[in-house]
From TrEMBL:
The keyword Transferase applies. This is UDP glycosyltransferase 89A2. Belongs to the UDP-glycosyltransferase family. One of its GO terms (molecular function) is UDP-glucosyltransferase activity. It comes from the Eukaryota. It holds the Pfam family UDPGT. Keywords: Glycosyltransferase, Transferase. The keyword Transferase applies.
Amino acid sequence: MAANATRSKPEAHILVFPYPAQGHMLALLDLTHQLALRGLTITILVTPKNLPFLSPLLSSHPSSVTPLVFPFPSHPLIPPGVEHVKDLGNSGNIPVMAALGKLHDPLFHWFNSHSNPPVAIISDFFLGWTQHLAARLQIPRIAFFSISTLLISIFDYLWNNAEKVKSLDEVEFGHLPGSPIFKQEHLPSLFKCCKQSDPDSEFVKDGCIANMKSWACILNTLDALEARNIQCLRTHLGHHRIFTVGPLSLTGLEVSGGGNSGSGSDQNDQVLNWLDRCPDGSVVYVCFGSQKLLSKEQMEALAKGLEKSGTRFIWVVKSGTIRQQEEGYGVVPDGLEERMRGQGLVIKGWAPQVLILNHKAVGGFLSHCGWNSVLEAIVGGVITLAWPMEADQYVNASLLVDDMGVGVRVSEGAHSIPDSDKLGRAIADAMTEGGGMKAEAKHLKKKALEAVSHGGSSMRDLDRFVEQLSQHGA
């Protein structure tokens, strides 16, 4: 479907600046692929160790996408050689955001010395300081959001009311559709970690507020999922330059044939063969993303819960360091794999998540509710069994469970140890649920596929963005 985008006459030269975290970067690279298909000339800024992420994109668009490699600026809280959030964990975002802010002046000088400088900047919302750079260069900046529209509005309110909010046990967002309420501990980690008068925190806060001053916003979501929240954001910003273009994973290089979809194919075959032997909708897929490592006690509680549920499962287990494994982090309890042979499959390390979620045997996804996982669950047409832990996950779980009715909460908290009896019942109940939730999940999948098909809402917004950028003089 993505390959059908038509190349228009040569268009403007733009700078794309991704943020070096998996969920942020991959979505923006998928967007960049779509913009290249629409004729834009693109320079994409990365630091040296993140350059390999661009290989599929550069191979597919050798004449229109060019890398710009800047050294990763030093920071006292970032070890030398670390250039990606996966090597630091969620707590590394503030220092990484602050470090990348040091590229403001080098970038300004690069623009001024370039014979054909970009006429617009598209940058991740964690790089809000690029709004100030764009204003200094007198060019439009477009903020790219790899999060839900609901979270964009929540962030905006939190940053602009920071001191008042931090004194509350729970925060009501009465100006948003449904007036959602979140406990203090369930607010986004980035906001909670920022400390008043800390220079890095103040820098992050300023950048997040600056996002709302961008000329336009591109969102990795879809109208059918967040219609009320999208309209609310448009009203708040006072313009219609908000472009919903998701799910971008359905429009990237993997889909249009340019990606490395063959990686891990032997394992893919093994997993798919196992799933082929399972009844439709009978398997729950269990995965907590690329960063979260479960403790020994959490691993044991989850293992017992899966066993007690009587439900078929595929459990993807992230492995830790040798020391973490010695302490039981990410270690599957002894005997589980033997006892569960036929009922359960444990995968250690990487797994073909999209392939699994789109298999007809899979009916549920036990997930931390990171935004990319949320979108992949929707595309797979499966219900979500939510165990939010940190970052944006409580907000995403609320959207799925409370707003859309395509999920249930089965646990919460990064360090909580669920009661295995209750967890087992929750999994069993959700997977045998009679129809409403599962039917809604299938309906949402249909809407997501329609959005990225020819003439769908997300494809129309991509075209509208390129057209408006051109009309702006960019």
